[in-house]
Amino acid sequence: MSNTAMKVSFTLNGKPVQADIEPHHTVLDVLRNTFALYGARESCGQGLCGCCTVLIDGRSASGCLYLAAALDGSNVETVEHLDADGELHPLQQAFIDCGAFQCGFCTSGFLLMSKQLLAANPDPSDAEIRNYLSGNLCRCAAYPEIIQAVRLAANRMNEAKQEVS
Ligand code: FES
Ligand code: FES
């Protein structure tokens, strides 16, 4: 360990973890290099594309910019946690059903942003979905299918809630 190394403790995908980090390490560095979680990806490295999106305390953050030192005590969720119950999350299933990806490089970011959207607004219009996801870029231009998938997931989740109540 170097003189500047520090330890951070946080919750990662529901489990308490610790990591030895350097002050310049980003969340993306720690996820990939310490925990072998590769779902969040670096594309622009400048907070402009959304490929590195993770949820920190339930809010989306750019893993390429967010310093790991600030994670202490946080609750971090990555795309790997979406199917934690052994079943695909409705958003994952809807992305598959709608063919809402080609190379898939952007997909983890879109899934987590969409999860955040549906938590805040369970029945968004297409315009609201488009607006909410406007910070996520897809170089394969799968935007129409992505909007369709979020809509489908929202419908399925709302139907499931009605069946329970
Ligand atoms: S890689 Fe982080 S926003 Fe593009
Ligand atoms: S599916 Fe290729 S970048 Fe979005």
TrEMBL record:
Ranges in coiled-coil conformation: none
Gene3D superfamilies in alphabetical order: 3.10.20.30, [2Fe-2S]-binding domain (1.10.150.120)
Domain 2Fe-2S ferredoxin-type, first and last residues per copy: 6-82
PROSITE patterns: 2FE2S_FER_2
MF-aspect GO terms: 2 iron, 2 sulfur cluster binding; metal ion binding; oxidoreductase activity
Keyword annotations: 2Fe-2S, Iron, Iron-sulfur, Metal-binding, Oxidoreductase
Classification via PANTHER family: OXIDOREDUCTASE WITH IRON-SULFUR SUBUNIT (PTHR44379)
Protein name: Carbon-monoxide dehydrogenase small subunit
Species this protein is from: Pollutimonas bauzanensis
Lineage: Bacteria, Pseudomonadati, Pseudomonadota, Betaproteobacteria, Burkholderiales
